[in-house]
Amino acid sequence: MSEYEHTCMIRGDGGRTIRAILDRICNKWTLLIVATLDQGSLRFTGLHQQIPGISQRMLTLTLRNLERDGLVSRTVHAEVPPRVEYALTPTGKSLIPPALALAGWAIEHVPHIETSREAYQSRNQ
Fold it and tell me: Do the Cβ atoms of 71 and 95 come closer than 8 Å?
């Protein structure tokens, strides 16, 4: 494998496919929803209560997109009133390790990034 062959995986079709997937995964709410559902299946209200700041509309849209992408399953129980539960699919569960790795990287580099931001800010005032 050449030194830069691994970047071809990222660049592929000009990056369109991967960018679209990463945009979905890296948006403001997806990882919070995935991390919350990693604890087990939840109803909409339970999810909403455990994710501070998310609107019902944004939770609905994000859940629909995650269901469409195969990361979350939606189960409707035939009851009155209907009970709907959301759970991670195996693909959704497989997102946890790389998300934790990325979070670990961010935590490890917080001091350097904050120092760089302060230096940048002081240079550009």
Answer: yes
> How many alpha carbons lie under 13 Å from residue 124 in its C-beta half-sphere?
6
The 10 Å Cβ neighbour count of residue 124 is 6
- pLDDT tens, position by position, 92-101: 999 999 999 9
pLDDT of residue 84: 93
3-state DSSP call for residue 43?
Answer: strand
Rounded CA-CA distance 57/116 in Å is 36
For residue range 80-92, list pLDDT tens digits in order. 888 899 999 999 9
| Cis bond upstream, residue 52 (ω within 30) | no
Q: What is the distance between the alpha carbons of residues 43 and 10, in angstroms, rounded to a whole number?
A: 36
One DSSP character per residue, 58-96 reads HHHHHHHHHHHTTSEEEEEE--SS-EEEEEE-HHHHTTH
Long-range contacts of 4-10 (CB under 8 A, 24+ apart): none
